[in-house]
């Protein structure tokens, strides 16, 4: 089955009620099709694969499918297969016996056992190691699995929802993903289009995000020009990026009227900066080139800092309200290039990149050209 499919005979009223109940905002044809599909598949036990770019709402949809299913009162366990270190993913999913590996002091149930009767959400399924994929296929085919360190097959009655922002077909071609598991998963594939392909949903999303604000900020008024600017933006970070912009504005702006100029500041802050082309990209580059680019990037940052200082001084001189930049967190990553180890520089670059993408590890890992798992490990190693 390839979803979304049309002609499901779902009334506008039913769809609206469903969306409200599950917090799915949007009136575009694309979102309607997604909603119609989940209304149709939710009550079944069918495995669902949700695909879409980062921030498009895959997790929102997964939760809605569980909440609208007959398993709603049972457990829903989300597992980020991309962030759990490779060595422990299998024991997290399937459990382990005492003594199965160093550190396994007790027998432990895995998520499949814990979710018995409920739903498991395998997020970032595209990042699952091949060895674990075989075991996932088995549990999907006949509900059977084995704890690490045991040869006794166990059974769990678990509905599986999986999600990825990777092109799994491409992963299969490059032998990183098993074809049999791919075929098994995509029996129902819900594709969530990027926000730039359903711009009509933007005003509704903005309204919904503003309604979630504290009472004091709920009366923020977005002018028509400002809304048009939001509609024109390309939203590479999709709905998550839009939510971040609205939240930042509500926290950092003092006035209640948000015009195009205000929006411009925040959209600029969210866009990859012009000088990002000077960030080191190690592929095919000598370390000397990469180092030069890093120095150049840090100089550009210094210049941006100086420019804001100039603006502030000018504001003070003219007794204007201060034009503070939107993001004001202390930036400990801005360190000089002297007397630092390569590790310190790496930690600083990672911290900076995480901030740049508002803590979104996927986007940060992509920008750094490392896997999310490697990023996760480094975050832990450096205590970031
Ligand atoms: N249709 C929607 N209605 C309301 N909020 C939404 C919608 N889609 C996404 N969001 C919000 O956008 C943010 C990102 O959504 P979500 O975490 O589901 O995205 P994702 O596709 O799982 O992202 P990632 O691939 O990075 O994990 C969340 O705050 C979520 O509440
Ligand atoms: Mg997600």
Write the layout of secondary structure elements.
Elements: H1 12-22, H2 29-41, E1 48-51, H3 58-67, E2 76-80, H4 86-94, H5 111-114, E3 119-123, H6 130-142, E4 144-145, E5 154-155, E6 159-164, H7 168-173, H8 179-185, E7 189-191, H9 202-211, E8 221-222, H10 224-232, H11 238-252, E9 257-258, H12 260-270, H13 287-318, H14 342-356, H15 361-368, H16 372-382
Parallel strand pairs: 1-6, 1-7, 2-3, 3-6, 8-9
Antiparallel strand pairs: 4-5
Helix pairs in contact: 9-11, 10-12, 11-12, 14-15, 15-16
What does this structure look like?
The protein is an alpha/beta fold and 384 residues long. Among the domains are: 12-193, P-loop containing nucleotide triphosphate hydrolases (Rossmann fold, 3-Layer(aba) Sandwich), CATH 3.40.50.300; 195-271, Helicase, Ruva Protein, domain 3. 48% of the residues lie in helices and 8% in strands. The protein has 16 helices and 9 strands. It has helices at 12-22, 29-41, 58-67, 86-94, 111-114, 130-142, 168-173, 179-185, 202-211, 224-232, 238-252, 260-270, 287-318, 342-356, 361-368, 372-382; strands at 48-51, 76-80, 119-123, 144-145, 154-155, 159-164, 189-191, 221-222, 257-258. It has a 5-stranded parallel beta sheet. A two-stranded antiparallel sheet has the order 4-5. A two-stranded parallel ribbon has the order 8-9. Strand 4 (144-145) and strand 5 form a beta hairpin. Helix 9 packs across helix 11 (238-252) and helix 11 (238-252) packs across helix 12 (260-270). The chain is globular. 30% of the residues are buried. The structure holds adenosine-5'-triphosphate and magnesium ion. Magnesium ion (MG) binds at residues 58-59, 123.
